[in-house]
Amino acid sequence: MSKRIVVLGSGESGVGAALLAKNKGFDVFVSDYGQIADKYQKELDANNISYESGKHTEALILNADEVIKSPGISPKVPIVQKLKAEGIQISSEIEFASRYTDAKLVAITGTNGKTTTSLLTHHILKQAGLNVGLAGNIGDSFAKSVIEKNYDYYVLEISSFQLEDIHDFHPSVAMLLNITPDHLDRYEYEMDLYAEAKFRIAENMQKEDCFILNKSDDYLMGIHQSLANTKATEVYFTDKDFNGATLNVDAYSFNNLSLKGGHNGMNMSAAVRAALFLGCEVSAIQEGLSTFKNAEHRLEWVADINGVDFINDSKATNVEAVQFALDSFEKPIVWIAGGTDKGNDYSTLFPLLEKLEIKALLCLGKDNTKLEKAFEGKVSIIRSTESVEEVIDWSLEIAHSGDVVLLSPACASFDLFKNYEHRGSCFKEAVLKHKNS
Predict the structure, then answer these.
(1) What is the model's pLDDT at position 390?
(2) Within this chain, do residues 276 and 312 fall inside the same structural domain, yes or no?
(3) Which of 100, 305, 355, 387 has the smallest count of CB within 10 Å of its CB?
(4) What is the CATH number of the domain that holds 182?
(5) Are residues 191 and 281 in the same domain?
(6) Does residue 246 have a known ligand-binding role?
(7) 115 labelled ligand-binding
């Protein structure tokens, strides 16, 4: 009798896990308490995978040999609690997929910079001639890629949610970029519980593996000794590796860099250390650094309107990411923020206000009360709206040539938008509409 795999959740990772389980000959069932998107239903139907939508039928779930849980599902939901009570193993998609590839894994986590560093590391390794894939919390699911591709290496962007349900997941290279408050509602508002999930990335690593850590992150290093349960060789990067134009890593200096800002200097430093550990030629790394283009919604330049630069940083959904963004500009800034607050402490941004010229705070969200109160008396112009078009009109009214209009929300997007990509796309569309009018 074949092993029964139940997949909870039907997003990219859930459907990918279901397809891989089917490919390996398991009895597969997908259950989603929400509605399964049409495109995923069609994919499941095409592969003869049984599923249910809009409910969890316990009799069809609690008979599983193993459950693959999508990362967005809280461990506190009743069906997950019942699975734990029954002693049924719960695994993440990255755990499941890693069993079916011999590729070396480069796993990247951290509160901020994961996506940029993953894209950059993948680009450098590809530039160096490695047969490398990109998956995890970015693009296609890891499980689906394992079915279709035969890579020698994978760069995986990994969230804390994905790390909660690993067992034997074993990267050859792991990076922990930083740890700052985020998703604390998932972790009982305890930073140490959040950090514990992050540090799990290295728990199965061996002495021949490389664990790359941010030595300039005081909280990370302070909790490191109690949480870093790993045999891996540790390598450190710091905020001193980058002087704004040149990256100095080990005995090498890298110039002609495409990424700007001190936070991206840290991302580049981590990526270069991974590439050097994997044996990439210095010339190839240099080429990768100089030719890399960052993804959408991450300090993405949109347009110049009358000498004003419009920047889309919609991916900045926490305070630390906004701090990085604001600190990347020396020009006067019209700052657009707001959305669904995630327990933010805005006071960490106050020191920046003393050295930057924030001309206005334009709040884009349904309830901006907390944001408005935090910056009352600290920013001279504060306005609120639920309209992207109105926020652009106000920006053009306030900003002058040489200024920056920065969308860097510090909040989730779900009050007005489908996700941060939708928010960023609406912002870009409104900016370009003005540009072309």
Answers:
(1) 97
(2) no
(3) 355
(4) 3.40.1190.10
(5) yes
(6) no
(7) yes
Band (pLDDT 50/70/90 cuts) for residue 197 is: very high
pTM value?
0.76
What pLDDT, on the 0 to 100 scale, is given for residue 38? 86
Task: Give the CATH number, domain containing residue 398.
Answer: 3.90.190.20
364-404 pLDDT, tens digit each: 999 999 999 999 999 999 999 999 999 999 999 999 988 89
- Tell me if 113 is assigned to a ligand binding site: yes
Closest CA to 112 of 171, 157, 166, 164: 157
Beta-strand relationship, 210-214 and 173-176: parallel
Q: What is the pLDDT of residues 400-437, one digit of tens each?
A: 988 899 999 999 999 999 999 999 999 999 999 988 87
Do 232 and 258 share a domain, yes or no? yes
Q: Which residue range is the domain that position 268 belongs to?
A: 95-291
Per the annotation, does 291 bind a ligand? Answer: no
Q: Name the packing angle between helices 191-199 and 218-227 (round to 10°).
A: 70
What's the rounded Cα separation, in Å, for the pair 95 and 100? Answer: 10
Known binding residue 69? Answer is no
DSSP string, 68-118: EE-TTS-TTSHHHHHHHHTT-EEE-HHHHHHTT--SEEEEEE-SSSHHHHH
Work out the number of other CB atoms within 10 angstroms of the CB of residue 290. Answer: 13
User: From CA 268, how far away is CA 286, in angstroms rounded?
Assistant: 11
Contact present, 30 and 51 (Cβ < 8 Å): yes
Q: Is there a binding annotation on residue 48?
A: no
Does the annotation place 348 within a ligand binding site? no
Report DSSP state, residue 25: T
**Same domain flag for 344 and 361:** yes
Do residues 118 and 77 both lie within one domain?
no
What pLDDT, on a 0 to 100 scale, did the predictor assign at position 342?
Answer: 84
